Amino acid sequence: MEAAEVSVLLVEDSPSDAILLQEALTGDGRGGFNFTVAETWAEAGAQLKGKTFDVLLLDLSLPDSSGRETFVRARAEAPHLPIVVMTGQADESVGLEAVRHGIQDYLIKGQAFGLQTARAIRYAIERKQAEMALKQAEASLQRERDQLEERVRERTAELSKANRALEAEIARRAHAEDAHREVLRRLAAAEETERGRVSRELHDRLGQDLTAIKLGLQIVRKRRACPPAVRQSACKLEKLADSLMRDTHRLAWELRPAALDDFGLEMALRRYAEEWAALSGVPVDFHSQGTTAGRLVPELETTLYRITREALTNVFRHAEAQRVSVLLERRADRVLLIVEDDGKGFDAAAVFKAPATGGRLGLLGMQERAALAGGAVEIESNPGAGTTVFARLPLALETEASRTTTDEHR
Asked: pLDDT tens across 244-260, in order?
């Protein structure tokens, strides 16, 4: 396939040199070049405004421009056109400066032959095309980079906004959870306060009234003039009063044991373990360590006492155990409670996954009580391997509770 004809703007003030160059490029029927000749830069400028060329073949010595000025003007007025400079002087510095200004090639008159000039022209065109393609590619790449950066900025702004919203939502939920826990903590405290009040009422008032009734019945029964029928009725009523006194004592003890308020957690747990063992027939080994350092804050004592009661209640109802051990240990930064039995055990994972039942509610209740105190309850159990309840509560709650109590009394 033949190459397309090249349109050349030849700027040469010497007509003879222009003719020789054209003959050298098109002689012997070679063709391939179409020349337009201008003898001054003014004529060349007019041609550039009215016609499109493939290459500019430029003599540096013109009547209206010479030397460096010529190729600087050419590059300024034809920035996208390939330029091949021709000069009669072999000055390397001029050639280097021309190349620095974006001129594609530099030829010395008398040394460049037709074939060499033709190659220089085609090379200049190819080089300029390559330069333009590279610039276009760079411009396209820059646009894509700018677009990408803009998208990154937009996406970053969106993510930043989403993160701020998420942080706000997390903070809101954390605040709501803190408020919820505080409400539950206050409800639990109010419940314990009410339990204590009712327990004291049962023990002090109702217990004293029943004691008075029992003593009155004894007096009636022991009178000599008392008819046998009355004495018999008084005896029955005295037994009923005894039963009511025992039930009242049990209810008061279940609501809030006086030992917990009067003597502290260790004594309350020891007494409860003894009474539970007597009731269930299952011996309980109770051990405590580090409890001589002083009493815990009431909230911690109440939480640990309730967890122990719930754990032993589950043992009584479900475990079929032969022996139970309870360990209370106070360490530097936390309190550890362990309730362990040798009963039939259960699949703990399956129970927690199953819908809520009475047994599961008891386990969840222990965990919730511990969570309100800033701690945790873990339950380890497998069928046939017994059950162990681990409760860990931080002593840091003492400081918080102390601050709260101080603030409330200010």
From this structure: 877 777 776 667 777 77
What are the respective helix, strand and coil percentages of the chain, to the nearest 5? 65, 15, 20
In a 13 Å sphere around the CA of 103, the CA atoms on its Cβ side amount to: 27
Tokens representing residue 233 in the block: 């009725």
Please choose, from the candidates 23, 87, 20, the residue with its C-alpha nearest in 3D space to the C-alpha of residue 60: 87
Q: Are 284 and 316 in contact (CB under 8 A)?
A: no
Residue 16 belongs to a domain: yes
354: helix, strand or coil: coil
Would you state the torsion angle of the CA atoms of residues 263, 264, 270, 272, taken in this order, to the nearest 10 degrees?
Answer: 90
CATH number at residue 88: 3.40.50.2300
Measured at the alpha carbon of residue 401, what is the angle toward residues 338 and 375, in degrees to the nearest 5?
Answer: 30
When divided into structural domains, the chain yields a total of 2
Determine, yes or no, domain membership for 152.
no
Q: How many CB atoms lie within 10 A of CB 68?
A: 14
End-to-end CA distance of the chain: 103
Rounded to the nearest integer, the mean pLDDT of the chain is: 81
Determine the structural domain holding residue 333 and report its residue range.
259-410
